[in-house]
Amino acid sequence: MGRAKDLREYIAALDELGDLRRVDAEVPQGLEIGAYIRRSYETRAPAPLFTNIRGTDEGFRLLGAPAALR
């Protein structure tokens, strides 16, 4: 992977490599997201991309542990 010019390009590259896991289920803000991210990092799982976070505006996403695998 070459150098990404922005975060969207980096997310697309992670997805292409299989290093991204989309989490579309609704999750609450706070500790649950942090625990999921930490577990992903510790187990060297793909980076989680949360797409449905309770209490946030439509389209808001959160990427956790983006450099955990590669």
Total strands: the figure is 3
| Cross-sheet strand order for the largest sheet | 1-2-3
**Rg calc:** 12 Å
Strand content: 5-15%
Low-confidence stretches: none
Q: Could you state the order of secondary-structure elements as H and E?
A: HEHEE
Features:
alpha+beta; 3-stranded mixed β-sheet; 3 strands
Model description:
- By secondary structure, the chain is α+β, with helices and mostly antiparallel strands.
- Helix content is 33%, strand content 14%.
- Strands 1-2-3 form a 3-stranded mixed beta sheet.
- Strand 1 (20-23), helix 2 and strand 2 (47-50) form a beta-alpha-beta unit.
- The mean pLDDT is 90.
Short synopsis of the structure:
By secondary structure, the chain is α+β, with helices and mostly antiparallel strands. Helix content is 33%, strand content 14%. The chain contains two helices and three strands.
Chart the SSEs and their pairings:
Blueprint: H1 7-17, E1 20-23, H2 31-42, E2 47-50, E3 62-63
Parallel strand pairs: 1-2
Antiparallel strand pairs: 2-3
